[in-house]
Amino acid sequence: MKGLAATLLAPLLLLSVSVHAWKGFNLPGNVPGGACKTQADWEKDFRVLRTLPGRFTSARVFASSDCGTLANAVPAALATNTKLLVGVWTENNDHFNAEKQALLQAVQKYGHKWIIAVSVGSEDLYRGDTNANTLASQINDVRGMLWSLGAGKIWVGHVDTWTVWVKPENAAVIKACDFVGTDGYPYFEDSVISSGSQVFWKSVNYVRGVVKSIKPGTEVWITETGW
Asked: Rounded to an integer, what distance in angstroms lies between the CA atom of residue 127 and that of residue 56?
């Protein structure tokens, strides 16, 4: 969730139906006091991740242009051999275009080997900020830009709550995605801790079933969870 992600490090677990891909954390673009992170701040964060149990080497960033995210995070990622799931905000045309431009500049300057994938938007459908057809068009737009840069193998998808993915009216977004990122927090479903795992995996499998029925072979990634 956008507000939550600004203050918490929500675990990131990117999984396909049967193959483990990446494990990491969602990282905000601001330090606790609210200031934008510098390159040194990003590098410090990435190095800390490597010291945690599991020695994480991947992270998700929610924006490309906001707070100079990619301008500062990409060189820090390269310095620490960290891979990034890149976010591109979609709320309005000016913001979307600024986000695309920041991603374009980062790829032109640093190549694309630091990119795990690109998420066009985050929980936009959950918040009611857009509709499925508009979001699908934006996903295809970013994919086309990456193709023009020689980065056509980079997957482009969207991250949203599991409750959104299972709605029939959002099928156009699934069809546009190379991957589907699902967010699930059992706490917000009034689950008790003892049944949290069961509630969480039930939601993941629900999304997997819907995605399989609409676009078979598309991977479902767990992009946010926690307690």
From this structure: 30
Helix H or strand E encompassing 119: strand 115-122
Cβ 125 vs Cβ 171: under 8 Å: no
**Is 123 considered catalytic here?**
yes
Q: Terminal CA-to-CA distance of the chain, rounded, Å?
A: 13
> Long-range contacts of range 35-39, CB-CB < 8 Å, 24 or more positions apart?
36/67, 36/68, 36/72, 37/67, 37/69, 37/72, 37/73, 38/72, 39/72, 39/73, 39/75, 39/76
pLDDT in tens, 42-82: 999 999 999 999 899 999 999 999 999 999 999 999 999 99
Close Cβ partners of 20 (under 8 Å, ≥ 6 residues apart): none
Q: Which of 211, 215, 197 is nearest to 165 (CA)?
A: 211
**Helices 69-80 + 39-51 axis angle, to 10:** 40
Active site residue 99: no
Question: DSSP labels for 164-217?
Answer: HHTSGGGHHHHHH-SEEEEE--GGGGT--GGGHHHHHHHHHHHHHHHHHHHSTT
Q: Please tell me the pTM assigned to this model.
A: 0.91
Options 43, 123, 189, 219, the catalytic residue:
123
pLDDT tens for each residue of 77-120: 999 999 999 999 998 999 999 999 999 999 999 999 999 999 99
